[in-house]
Amino acid sequence: MKLKFIHPIHREGYIFIIISVAFAFLSGAIVPAIGWISAIIAVFVTYFFRDPDRITPLGDNLVVSTADGIIHKIEEATAPEELNLGDKTYKRVSIFLNVFNVHVNRVPISGTIVDLHYRSGKFFNAALEKASKDNERQTCVVENKQGDKIIFVQIAGLIAKRIICDLDVKQEVTTGEKFGIIRFGSRMDIYFPANSKINVLEGQTAIGGETIIGEIINKQKVATKTKKAAVKK
Fold first, then answer.
1. What is the fold, at CATH topology level, of the domain defined by 62-217?
2. Is residue 1 classed exposed, middle or buried when 0-12, 13-18 and 19+ CB atoms within 10 A define those classes?
3. I need a surface site. Which of 26, 29, 99, 207 has the fewest CB within 10 A?
């Protein structure tokens, strides 16, 4: 029988777990009190790098959450400047992750990775507005079957010191597929094209790979409805 509270560990966590456990044993042999504190830290490090299974909803046009966390802000915004998309605006959903959230990141929608940009930067609190612009980040762009491009960005936080992204340009990905992790606190931004609707509210808790953040409206269906409406008139 599988125990629900025992989850796999992301590969990025093994070295940190080994170091923290080893330090707990060594320090405990010298100063027991420090050993107990170190053991608690080791347990937390193990917990932080947990990698639970997720059940992803089916639907070609569904956009799922890229991470666990709180829907921090929903607003109109321009894309990250490294994409050179000018003043074109998108619907941006920002997800804030605290140190207790699962930090494994997931692809928001099936398609092909068409652009990747890493940019070094600062480490402001990820909850601050300037974090989207000034913090270290990894920008990814996926194009779905109908040609819509969804931008998703891994953003380092106050104590996040490394962004891991395992994607490659031209790679085929599926909704909910794991693609990376941000170590120790972070933020994820998702940029939606104009022909989409947002299905979440600010303050809502999102589950990576499961929560439906939004939906891309099929352009052909919209065109058909417009034609029918014109005929009726």
1. Glucose Permease (Domain IIA) (2.70.70)
2. exposed
3. 29
Antiparallel, parallel or unpaired: β 163-165 and 205-206: unpaired
The yes-or-no answer on residue 132 being catalytic is no
Q: Using CA atoms, how far apart are residues 62 and 190, in angstroms rounded to an integer?
A: 13
Q: Give the DSSP per-residue string, 19-32.
A: HHHHHHHHHHHH-H
What is the maximal distance between C-alpha atoms in the chain?
Answer: 85
Domain coordinates in residue numbering, the chain: 11-48, 62-217
18: enclosing H helix or E strand: helix 14-30
CA distances from 156 to 71, 135, 164 (A): 17, 6, 10
The answer to whether 137 and 121 are in contact (CB under 8 A) is yes
Task: Quick: pLDDT tens for 57-95.
Answer: 988 899 999 999 999 999 999 999 899 888 889 999 999
Q: Which positions ≥6 away from 2 have C-beta within 8 Å?
A: none
* Percentage above 90 pLDDT, the chain: 52
